[in-house]
Amino acid sequence: QQPVQSPQAVILREGEDAVINCSSSKALYSVHWYRQKHGEAPVFLMILLKGGEQKGHEKISASFNEKKQQSSLYLTASQLSYSGTYFCGTEMVGSNQFYFGTGTSLTVIP
Amino acid sequence: DAGVIQSPRHEVTEMGQEVTLRCKPISGHDYLFWYRQTMMRGLELLIYFNNNVPIDDSGMPEDRFSAKMPNASFSTLKIQPSEPRDSAVYFCASSSGPSNYGYTFGSGTRLTVV
User: Fold this and answer.
1) Cross-chain Cβ contact A32/B107 below 8 Å
2) Would you tell me which of A60, A67, A108, B34 could form a disulfide with B46, CB atoms 3.0–4.6 Å apart?
3) Which residue of A has its CA nearest to B91?
4) For B71-107, how does the pLDDT look when each residue is reduced to its tens digit (9 = 90+)?
5) Overall average pLDDT of the A13-28 stretch
6) Dihedral-angle region of residue B107 (phi above 0 means left; psi in -120 to 50 means alpha; beta otherwise)
């Protein structure tokens, strides 16, 4: 039930782009994205709902492909402040259960 | 808005002792969630409430864990007796509708059982 994220870890230089993927084996109703900095709580970034959409948040955007049951988070022109662990969370169609993915550690270096 | 407030921030206790974690959700949020985070298991849902009623407690590890929400502005998670394997960061989160809105997490309680 837990969504699978890839990659597990990525290191970027400032200004580079990154893509984080989140895949489910079940049909999805919604996908959430969160960022957690070390020693802090996860912070909500955005939610994408069934119907296939793309959303943006500053230079961070995401897409949701319900046919493929996956979502991708795009980070463009990365900044040092983007460092942290990114989690997707998924709610499946017909279920009120919600599962967080295993997380992707992203490190931006100067 | 002060956000979700958890207390204490850190708790160190001896094995066998009772531990009580506290949470004040955001006013107006009907949903409250208790999560546990460890390196090995990631973020695990323990229990969630809707309008103060427990809806799903299937994630509660065993009878040593209990949670209550006596009113819309307060919830507790109790572990009795505590064991070293309970050591983790416990997060409380609230939402006005998780299917369409995100979760707002509290700062967490880092529990260490020695």
Assistant:
1) no
2) B34
3) A41
4) 999 999 999 999 999 999 999 999 998 777 889 999 9
5) 94
6) alpha
